[in-house]
From TrEMBL:
It comes from the Eukaryota. Belongs to the plant acyltransferase family. It comes from Flemingia macrophylla. GO terms for molecular function: transferase activity. Coiled coil: none annotated. InterPro entries: CAT-like_dom_sf, Plant_acyltransferase. Keywords: Transferase. Pfam families: Transferase. PANTHER family: ACYL TRANSFERASE 4, OS05G0315700 PROTEIN. This is Benzyl alcohol O-benzoyltransferase.
Amino acid sequence: MSSSSSPSLKFTVRRCQPELVAPAEPTPRHVLPLSDIDDQDGLRFQIPFVQFYSNERSMAGKDPVNVIRLALAQTLVFYYPFAGRLRETTGRKLVVDCTGEGVMFIEADAAVTLEQFGDTLQPPFPCFQQLLYDVPGSEGVTDSPLLLFQVTRLMCGGFVLAIRLNHTMSDGAGMKLFMNALAEMARGAREPSVPPVWRRELLMSRDPPRITCIHREMEQVPDTNEGYFTTSFEDNMVLRSFFFGPIEIAALRRMVPHHFRNCSTFDIITACIWRCRTKALEINARDDVRLMVIVNARGRFNPPLPVGYYGNAFAYPSAVTTAGELCENPFGYVVELVNKVKGEVTEEYMHSVADLFVTKGRCLFTTVRSLIVSDLRHFNLRGIDFGWGKALYGGVAKAGAGPFLGAIYYMSHTNAKGEEGRVIPIWLPGKAMNKFAYELDDLLGRNQNQLWTGPSVKMSTLYAEAFP
C-alpha cells in the first residue's frame, strides 16, 4: 500500500516579516454594517484554508509571491471592505470601518518538496502552523486584519497558499468569489468577471423582529454526558481525514431503501458519519443528538440574492433525534432525517433566524451533542488557478469551527489511486476516533481501519509546536 502524508514530516520555513497589502488604488472611506447573519456568535472566528500548487514550466521565471501579492492589492480595490477593520458597536453589532489599511501578507520559503508530503494531500498537514503563521496580535475578530495570506515557495518550484479568513465577512460561496477574482487578477484581468456586491442590508433583521420559524439549532440544552466531546481544545483530540470514493458510496447506497434511492450522495455520507460518530462517542441512548446542515440560501430568496453577494448567506437547520433512535433504526431512517432537514431553509427562515440573533443577543448555536456538516465541493476551491494550474489540494486546513470541533467539511479530492471522491477531516477524542474508524468499516463491510487513508495528529502536537 502506498504511503500518505504524515505529521512526522518536519521541515523549516523561513518567513519574512509580515506586511500589510493595501488596495492598489484609493478606496471609499466609510463604515459598513455587517448583516445580522454575519455577526452571530457562531461566526466570530478565523477559518484557515490552504491551496497546494505544483511547479508549472510555462510560469518559469515568475514568482508566486510577487504575482499573488500584486493581484491581492488589485483585488482589494474591488473588495475594499476586506482592507478595513471590524468594530463592535451598540448591541454587539459589528461594522466594518473601511480604513484601507490592508490585509496581512507573509512571504516564506520552505525546505521541503511536494513529493515529501506523500502521495496524497489532505488534513492534517505537517508543520501547518509554519505554513500559516498566526501573527501575534492579529487573531482578534475586531481591530485586526480580516484576511491573512502566506505564500510559501517550495524547493521543487511549487508553492503553498494558506489563508486565514475572518468568517464574519464571508462564507464559502463568498470566499470563492473573492478567490476567483484574485486568480483572475493574477492571470492579467483588470477587474473581476463577477462584480462584488455588499448589500448586507438584505439579511438584516426586520423591524420589529419576529421569530416565525422553529430554530432547534439554537436551543440551549444541558450537557448530561460528562466526559463527552466538549467544545474546548483538549490534548486527547485527534484529527484524521476519511475518503469516500465510488466504492464507499456504492456500499452505502445499497443500504438505502428502494423508495428512497433518489437521495443525494451528501445525504448518505452524512447519515453514515452522524451514526458512526454518535456510536463512537457512546452517547446515552436517551439523550438527544443534533445534526446541523449548512444550507446556502442564496437561491432561496425571491428574487435570489445578487450573484456577487459575498457575505454569509446560509443557515444550519437542525435534525434532532435520540442517540438510541439514530443508532438502532434502519440506515434509511437516518438518511431521511438528513434529506428532510435541508428543505427547511426558505427566505422566511432566513429572516426569522436574523430576527432571532437580534432578539437573543447574537447567540451561539447548540454545541452539546451536535455535529455541523458543510459541503464545500460545489465551490471547487481546487479549481482556483493563479497561472500555475489547478490546486492539488484546495479547501479547509482542518475540521472545526473556531473552538467548536464538531464541524466537518466535505471537499472534492483525488486519492492516491486516482479515484475522485470526497475527503472529510474530523476531530474526535483518541479513543472515540478508533471506535469511529471501526464503526465506519463495519457499516461498509470492510476490515478495521481500511477506509482511513490519512494521518492523524494530536491536538497537543498541532497547537503546541514551536516556531523557529
